[in-house]
Amino acid sequence: MTNKLKSLWAGDVPLPEAFWWYAVAYGVLANFVTSGLFLILIVEDMSPWLLVPAFLLPVPYNIFVIVAVWRSAEQYQGDQKWADLARAATVVGMIIVTLL
């Protein structure tokens, strides 16, 4: 697992895998789970000191996956428009799922 994360961080994972699996599938899942946790904490009327960290919990993953997709896009051998589109979609998507 550690080697896969190192490869992902270095941009050595193929762009389709980095984008579709790590940004889209795992990114949506991670943000969905942490949003659920955040909502549970709100419903349970927890302290704001717990709400802020719960809200920010997916941010490190989101930043990690933006960098990973960006670096994978640099090494992409296909049409550059797909690399640019993957970069833009990942940045915009991670911002949206972080804020929602």
Low-confidence sequence ranges: none
- Anisotropy-based shape: elongated
Tell me the number of strands. Answer: 0
| pLDDT averaged residue by residue | 95
- Estimate percent helicity: over 70%
Order of helices and strands: HHHHH
State the helix count: 5
Structural class: mainly alpha
Ends apart, CA distance between termini: 29 Å
Biggest beta-sheet profile: none
Q: In percent, how much strand structure appears in the residues? A: under 5%
Radius of gyration: 15 Å
Describe the protein's architecture and organization.
This protein has 100 residues and is mostly helical. The protein has 5 helices and no strands.
Helix/strand layout:
Layout: H1 2-10, H2 15-43, H3 48-56, H4 59-74, H5 80-99
Features:
100 residues; single chain; mainly alpha
Task: Give a quick summary of the entry.
Helices cover 83% and strands 0% of the residues. It is mostly helical.
